[in-house]
Amino acid sequence: MVQLLSPEGVRKDSPEYPIDLDAEQLRQALEHMVLARRLDVEGTNLQRHGELSLWPPLIGQEATQAGAILAIGPNDQVFPGYREQALGHWMGVSIADILATWRGSAICPWDTVATRFGAYPVMIGSGALHGVGYAMGIQRDGMTGHDDPSTDAAALLFHGDGGMSEGDVSESYVFAAANQAPIVFCCVNNQYAISERTTVSARTSLFRRAAGFGIHSVQVDGNDAIAMAAVLRDCLRRARNGEGPCFVEAWTYRMGAHTTTDDPTRYRSKEEEQAWAALDPIVRLRTHLLNEHLIDDDWLAALDERADAFGASVRAAIDDIPEPDLVAELGNVYVDPTPDIRREQQELADWLALDPEEAN
Ligand SMILES: Cc1ncc(C[n+]2csc(CCOP(=O)(O)OP(=O)(O)O)c2C)c(N)n1
User: Fold this and answer.
1) Which of 243, 268, 228 is nearest to 144 (CA)?
2) Residue-wise pLDDT tens digits, 100-140
3) Which protein residue has the closest C-alpha to ligand 1 atom 4?
């Protein structure tokens, strides 16, 4: 497993994955992770206040996203799972758009081309097919193999450990390998698919399984933002260069519940949670930066203030979510609405036009 920062915050070298991040980049990675965690706290609270229908916590997985933002090139397209909220925001998706998705008032309100951040795949595994299809498309458009990251492109696709049990994902690997498609699969192995442990669905390490498809695969400490950045950079470079697909297994832990409807105490122990808490990605980078005198207590106090201001802006963003047009939403089911859909749209429009007293 590639690790460049020990759980005690000590930097290690890896001849295979050299990476030189300056002090500002490291501070920014820490800030990103702290704000990601704040976004998660606010999202969970907003759900508890009834403002969101659901929220999938990202707590514990911040380093996978902070590493990715350091690795993505200007033309790369990200295909997220449904926990990459922080990465999406850093790429330009507004907080209101992210919250609208979890409020249930929009499906994908952001511009996936302008932000280069795709829609959330609600059907587990379906995103892998979209990602490979996109990668095969940019390959055919001649956007790989020029040894120039300013013009070359790759797809970076996130899926979970549970997602690897889906047929769609296996088919995606076959197509990616057969076509040598410019895609990096980032499998966030957070140890659980809802309440099911990875050890149940995978009798071998996930990165080994990908290797069986003929895909270059690496296992990386997913709580180490520096290692995540180094490995993803290398894999994306390979993909852009036309060297084929890569698979990165990010070894991490979902510290929160699966979603706000889940109670993890029913399927895992306090001891297990405590063991993983000791590997916290934020504490690890913070310790490193303090030890190297790249930050100090004043810097951390200022970061706390920025996090509070960010938290307030997340709460305020609820007011920026437009009311959905339900009739128009039904029209999004097919390219051309069928007679049944048109009838349902009319029925809904008539019902919405009723006096609330009558509707009840
Ligand atoms: C095709 C399909 N089957 C089942 C579900 C229900 N479901 C939602 S999340 C989830 C677990 C996914 O686990 P994993 O891929 O490991 O991602 P994680 O939640 O751990 O980030 C399941 C089974 C679904 N959304 N889609």
Assistant:
1) 243
2) 999 999 989 999 999 999 999 989 999 999 999 999 999 99
3) 124
